[in-house]
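Quick one:
INPUT:
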């Protein structure tokens, strides 16, 4: 690991000032990095995939931004809340099952006790070529160098949202739950505070795979706001992985549904393990609204969700796997027993 300067600001304002001070003295905007739980960042520093000269440790902000609060209209999750704390929180378990499930199926118990929500949504891809700097061709790590995965071992890679410059999968689980619940994310940065829909936080690779989000330089995620909508309770996260112990998704689906007399009034679908960013399947949702759900209807929606899939040499299996994952998620969510209390 390369040497770096470490600091631990005591407040948000201090953290933003330190970040500005660091990048002001450098032409490289990656010269400074924020640290939360460190479970992704330190890993990548050890691998020398990223080599910030300055680490700004945000853990002192936990006291202010780790609360889990529910009011009449929303669930508010501090960005520094630990994954384990949110997954086990009674209100989350009872009223937002898709969130609890997406977090409890992610990583290992040790990691969930350390890792934060903000760090989870900003985790990097697990593309092996990205994580191993001995491979020269990786447009995400070294813009303009090419993409080793296109002709390489791409079984784990994405089939939706890819470009000729990058086919890396977005590996997180929690992001799909946030999309299924129409959540927004609160950001504080040098230009002030703003909230944006979570669904617009991540970018597809297009021809700039190294720019992964729409965060402005120096912005810190402080909170997630999940509105209490009619479909929040009837929601679930289904994750298919190569092994049942801790493992990233090969395919996953987060579904939240409002049913009235067996008819779908509204529905949100987000797919994971198959796309370059947390992936909302809007056309599939449109196919379901106003209809009852049976296997044939679910299969039709799942077919639509993958109609634009572009498989690579080793991952064509993700099309039928992704479809059957979504079918099962839709049938399971439609048959959920949901209490009013
Ligand atoms: C073996 C292993 C298995 C895993 N399996 C899964 C899995 O199945 N599913 C899954 O979803 N995840 C999985 N993960 C990923 C894990 O969930 C993430 O490493 C973790 O959530 C990152 O959180 P952190 O707080 O440690 O972030 P850090 O490592 O501290 O930060 C990650 C990134 O986010 C930035 N950052 C962090 N917080 C903020 C903030 N508030 N504002 C702005 N920037 C911020 C950092 O600068 C860094 O770039 C796994 C990880 C490992 C090592
Ligand atoms: S898929 Fe993306 S991250 Fe992986 S090697 Fe290609 S450019 Fe790099």
């Amino acid at each position: 690991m390369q040497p770096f300067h470490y600091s631990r600001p005591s407040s948000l304002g201090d953290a933003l000032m330190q970040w500005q001070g660091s990048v002001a003295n450098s032409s490289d905007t990656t010269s400074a990095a924020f640290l939360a739980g460190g479970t992704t960042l330190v890993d990548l520093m050890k691998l020398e995939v990223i080599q910030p000269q300055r680490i700004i440790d945000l853990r002192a902000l936990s006291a202010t931004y780790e609360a889990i609060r529910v009011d009449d209209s929303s669930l508010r999750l501090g960005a520094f809340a630990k994954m384990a704390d949110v997954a086990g929180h009674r209100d989350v378990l009872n009223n937002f099952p898709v969130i609890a499930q997406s977090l409890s199926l992610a990583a290992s118990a040790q990691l969930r006790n350390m890792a934060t929500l903000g760090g989870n949504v900003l985790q990097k891809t697990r593309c092996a070529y990205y994580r191993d700097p001995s491979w020269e061709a990786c447009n995400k790590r070294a813009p303009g160098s090419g993409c080793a995965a296109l002709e390489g071992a791409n079984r784990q890679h994405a089939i939706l949202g890819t470009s000729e410059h990058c086919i890396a999968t977005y590996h997180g689980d929690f992001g799909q739950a946030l999309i299924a619940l129409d959540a927004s994310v609160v950001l504080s940065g040098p230009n002030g505070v703003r909230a944006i829909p979570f669904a617009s936080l991540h970018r597809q690779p297009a021809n700039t795979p190294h720019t992964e989000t729409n965060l402005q330089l120096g912005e810190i995620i402080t909170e997630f706001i999940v509105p209490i909508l009619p479909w929040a309770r009837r929601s679930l996260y289904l994750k298919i992985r190569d092994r049942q112990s801790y493992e990233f998704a090969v395919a996953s689906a987060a579904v939240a549904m409002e049913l009235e007399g067996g008819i779908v009034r509204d529905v949100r679908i987000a797919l994971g393990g198959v796309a370059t960013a947390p992936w909302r399947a809007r056309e599939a949702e449109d196919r379901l609204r106003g209809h009852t759900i049976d296997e044939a209807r679910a299969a039709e929606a799942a077919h639509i969700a993958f109609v634009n899939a572009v498989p690579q040499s080793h991952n064509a299996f993700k099309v039928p796997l992704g479809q059957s994952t979504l079918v099962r998620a839709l049938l399971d969510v439609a048959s959920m027993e949901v209490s009013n209390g």
